[in-house]
Amino acid sequence: MIVFRFCLTALTAIGAFAATPAAAQVESEEIVVLGDLESAEDLPTQTKPDTNLAQTSRTAASESARFIRCTELPEPDELRTILDTPVNRIAGQRALHRFIRTHSGCYGGLDTVVRPSPWLGVCNPQGAPGAPPKNADQIFVESNLPAEMRSMLSVTGHRSVRMNGDLCRVTFDRGALFELAVEKYGDDITLSRGLTFHPVIRERFETREIPRSESRSPTDREFFYRVACMVQIRPEYGQMMLQTEPGSETETRLRQLLIGYGAPCVGYAEEVVADGSQFRAYVAESVYSWMVAVRGTDSLVP
Description:
Layout: E1 3-6, H1 21-26, H2 28-32, E2 46-49, H3 54-71, H4 76-84, H5 90-102, H6 119-122, E3 125-126, E4 140-141, E5 153-155, E6 161-163, E7 167-168, H7 170-185, H8 193-196, H9 199-212, H10 218-233, H11 235-241, H12 249-261, E8 271-274, H13 276-295
Helix pairs in contact: 3-7, 4-5, 7-13, 9-13, 10-11, 10-13, 11-12, 11-13
């Protein structure tokens, strides 16, 4: 069985290819003939939850959503810096750190130790520093970490490090910002396959995202492109997911449909293990990025 594991703590992709939205276009005729599938069992790729991370991820995602509801969005200039600068670049990390510190009263679970910038915008690990991973496959992070974080990390391979904690809160903070930005600035855009497969829009997407994603970690880049590929194939499901209650049956169903119809994006793996909260964060960024391409600008934020 070919299995693809989708969570930022582990990646198992046997026989899968590094999907990009362009790869989805090649498969578009095959995707069309799948038609409307009524049952999750009919989907070519089956989805299973990642039970190792579920509770920790749900808690982090809930805290991030509550934080953004409490603060609302940053000012447009700051928001563009956080969302639109190349991922993992210092300007965006410092902007997110500054926004969190400025609104620390809204930020649940904030470390009592005042961390230097850009700590809160790089990873902001959730879990006890120095604690061993809960699972042998747990936390892999590849990032340009500042020196003060390196004592928390141990090298496990030539391109990965293992974090002695649980997961990065920044994934959920950024996801919540992308969601609210889509709601506030993209409410006039309805994504469709006619748009996401349009050659001009697809070229805009790639022109923006390829350089923007060069500074991502390899795992982060792969996850983003795979989910962006899924959203390209069924953009209506991605947009609908962001309007659902996190953890609801509707959200679960939409995740199954996105992954199932997006089988080409995971190399037609027979099974995808997905952490739902992290997956939603990537969907939010992907929907935002496709909307930027539709609008033909550098940002969704005016």
